[in-house]
Specification:
By secondary structure, this protein is α+β, with helices and mostly antiparallel strands. Among the domains are: 136 residues, Rossmann fold (3-Layer(aba) Sandwich); 95 residues, no CATH class. 31% of the residues lie in helices and 23% in strands. Strands 8-7-18-19-20-17-21 form a seven-stranded mixed sheet. It starts with a strand and ends in a 6-residue tail after the last helix. The model has no long low-confidence stretch (mean pLDDT 94).
Length: 388
């Protein structure tokens, strides 16, 4: 019987997995490269009492009952409905685009005709820009082309460093076009922000006598591939290992470097109560930054005549750069997906290794998706001899 399960990474995948194994009576050692837990969900309160999400804005939203039920064991969610805008030709318009967008950019009579046509044509509340670009209706196509040219194409080029046709279509489907006046970013069954922040949620997840957390540890310095027996060793021992980091880095880039996008942020404290209408405003046409987050609106925080904004920049991930040295988003192209499959087939040969998480799976997960996936992976391996 193994004495300990090694889990690499303290984001959602690693922390949820650690808790599940701990509850099942297993001893877990969780290793985190950074000096804090919670991965990219990490938040903190600054010297002026403003809670800031260090690695970019996050809110919780899901339609998956079991994900909400699981996380509710470790926090109280304050209801919060995210609102966003995008700047088009100097005009702040709701994001996702809705009927207000049509009113802002079309004469009144044309706007009414287009809104009616969209409702009649789709008979549902939303569609993707890709669907609308392929519509048989010329007015719908023209509206979609306007939005594509003014927002989707420009934002995609900055965010991903690729032309839209090079990107997995799933990325362009993430933000729909809405056929009503609803002005929230999500319309899920459950939406909110943990009452004391995301870091507190992770602290509760990892607070268990069977879990030992070690920060500031580069697990790759302790992992060794044993080719002959197809096992992954930790400090020379064959133990169960759950790895949530980048799969190409784990195997020393033996099949090449998988592409990721990274982010960096420029923060500014302002002596005013409010800077912009909503928490997040996208700037597709600006030459450099992609969006601005105002943290006193995420969640809403009463801190007097002050606010903090963060301009967000998207860059190609490079671990050697001073900025952009954290992998955030897998860049899903046909070539990158093929390379990932080669890595995955190789990883599957290691009997004591389980991969789980956005970087390990090379998937563009939302937080509820990674929690749900982790629950499923745990169910699979707990019914196997992986951690006997």
């Amino acid at each position: 019987m193994y004495n300990e399960i090694i889990i690499v990474g303290s984001g959602f995948a690693g922390s949820v997995m650690a808790r599940l194994f701990a509850e099942a009576g297993k001893r877990v050692r969780l290793l985190e490269r950074r000096n804090h837990i919670a991965g990219n969900m990490y938040d903190y309160t600054d010297d002026n009492g403003i809670r800031i999400q260090k690695y970019g804005p996050h809110t919780f939203h899901t339609n998956i009952d079991r994900v909400y039920a699981f996380l509710r064991q470790y926090c109280v969610f304050d209801e919060y409905h995210l609102k966003c805008e995008a700047i088009i030709d100097g005009v702040a318009t709701p994001s996702p685009f809705n009927f207000k967008t049509i009113d802002q950019f079309y004469p009144a009579q044309e706007a009414q005709k287009l809104k009616s046509r969209l409702v009649e044509y789709y008979k549902r509340e939303s569609a993707t820009v890709l669907e609308m670009l392929n519509s048989e209706d010329c007015d719908i196509r023209a509206y979609a082309q306007f939005l594509f040219d003014k927002d989707y194409k420009l934002y995609t080029a900055k965010q991903w460093g690729l032309a839209p046709e090079e990107i997995d279509p799933l990325v362009l489907r993430r933000v729909p076009i809405v056929f009503n006046y609803k002005d929230t970013y999500f319309y899920d069954k459950y939406e909110g922000i943990p009452q004391n922040g995301f870091t507190a949620l992770f602290e509760n997840l990892l607070h268990h006598p069977n879990i030992t957390v070690q920060r500031g540890i580069n697990a790759l310095e302790h992992l060794q591939v044993q080719e002959q027996d197809r096992v992954m060793l930790f400090d020379g021992q064959s133990v169960p290992i759950i790895y949530t980091g980048a799969i190409d880095e784990l195997f020393g880039y033996r099949y090449g470097h998988l592409p990721y996008r990274s982010l960096y942020f420029e923060y500014e404290r302002l002596p005013q109560k409010s800077f912009q209408n909503v928490a997040i405003v996208a700037h597709p046409a600006d030459a450099a930054f992609t969006r601005i987050t105002e943290y006193t609106k995420l969640p809403y925080q009463e801190v007097g005549e002050q606010t903090v904004i963060a301009r967000e920049y998207s860059v190609l991930y490079d671990p050697h750069n001073q900025r952009g040295n954290e992998p955030y988003y897998p860049v899903l192209t046909e070539d990158s997906k093929r390379m990932y499959e080669i890595y995955k087939q190789y990883a599957d040969q290691f009997s004591n290794l389980v991969l789980c998480g956005r970087l390990a799976d090379f998937r563009y997960y939302n937080m509820d998706m990674v929690v749900n996936h982790t629950l499923s992976v745990f169910e699979q391996i707990s019914n196997s001899d992986f951690a006997l």
